[in-house]
Amino acid sequence: MLIYIARRVLAVAPVLFGVTLAVFSMLFLVPGDPVKIMLAEFVTTPEQIARMRAQLHLDEPVLQQYGRFVGNALRGDLGTSIRSRRPVTQEIGDNLASTAQLALASMAVAVALGIPLGLIAALVRNSWLDVASMGVALLGVPATGGGDFLHLVLPAVTLGAIASAIIARLTRSSMLEVLGQDYVRTARAKGLAGWSVVLRHALKNALIPVLTIFGLQFGNLLAGTVIVETVFSRPGLGRLIVGGILAKDFPLVQGTVLFVATVYVLINVIVDVAYAVADPRIRLG
């Protein structure tokens, strides 16, 4: 187990390297000069623009800028936002709680909707209720201010409905497989109550495969916050990234994306380890 965890943690490095390289490359393909955007409201001379570009190291070759960013990131320094002139880590810290709150609430909605829908669909397979449950799940597709609970409900439901569709379908297929196992038929033959067999024996084992997609869905929820936070004018990392892209704020976008990618891959490592612990039949090498 420890060897597996060490291997997965080491595998995080090339993934994050690829993410930073891709983001860095795409930002340079976006038209516009971040210095000119930042100074758009002021009357400036070419000399002043050139001086500002030098201060921000934007006059350096692209590979040198990327090397500087990677080197600083390895020391925990994600740079300084061009737009606000604040450390990127501080910008992330100010917006992290809002995004985490939205992602966790959305996951709670996804689990609360997805597992019951999948369970009901499996128990009444091929009935009208099964069709209705899966129909609701199939409708869980993306819909094209504030931080209190009431302002959280609609964004959380919007994101959670997407993930609940996938969780419901996987729960249904997993339950159907488990219900056909010998130990479930034996429990029923012994006269155990139907719901007791389902909840105490079948559901517990059926949820183990569902656990594997939690990490992936949490990552999808983080990605979804980019759209949802912008549409609902809600503060958070997603809206921070969008603002950084529009302003061509290279350090802000690179640092925030790197942080989100790190959280995503670490959550997937944790989910994989939890899966192995939940199912002793799994052997991780």
Q: What can you tell me about this protein's structure?
A:
The protein is mainly alpha-helical. The chain has one domain (2-278): MetI-like fold. It is built from 11 helices and no strands. It has helices at residues 2-29, 34-38, 46-55, 62-74, 88-123, 128-138, 149-179, 182-189, 194-231, 237-246, 250-278. Helix 5 runs antiparallel to helix 6 (128-138). It is elongated.
Strand and helix layout:
Elements: H1 2-29, H2 34-38, H3 46-55, H4 62-74, H5 88-123, H6 128-138, H7 149-179, H8 182-189, H9 194-231, H10 237-246, H11 250-278
Structure in a nutshell:
This protein has 285 residues and is mainly alpha-helical. It has helices at residues 2-29, 34-38, 46-55, 62-74, 88-123, 128-138, 149-179, 182-189, 194-231, 237-246, 250-278. It has a single domain (2-278), classed as MetI-like (MetI-like fold), CATH 1.10.3720.
Individual helix count: 11
Euclidean distance between termini CA atoms:
7 Å
CATH superfamily: MetI-like
Alpha-beta classification: mainly alpha
Number of discrete domains: 1
What's the SSE pattern?
Answer: HHHHHHHHHHH
Shape: elongated
Per DSSP E runs of 2 or more residues, the count of β-strands stands at 0
Mean pLDDT over the residues: 78
Characterize the main sheet: none
Which CATH architecture would you pick?
Answer: Orthogonal Bundle
Beta-strand residue percentage: under 5%
* Residue share in helix: over 70%
For the CA atoms, what is the radius of gyration?
24 Å
According to CATH, the fold-level topology is MetI-like fold
CATH class: Mainly Alpha
Provide the low-confidence segments as ranges.
140-146
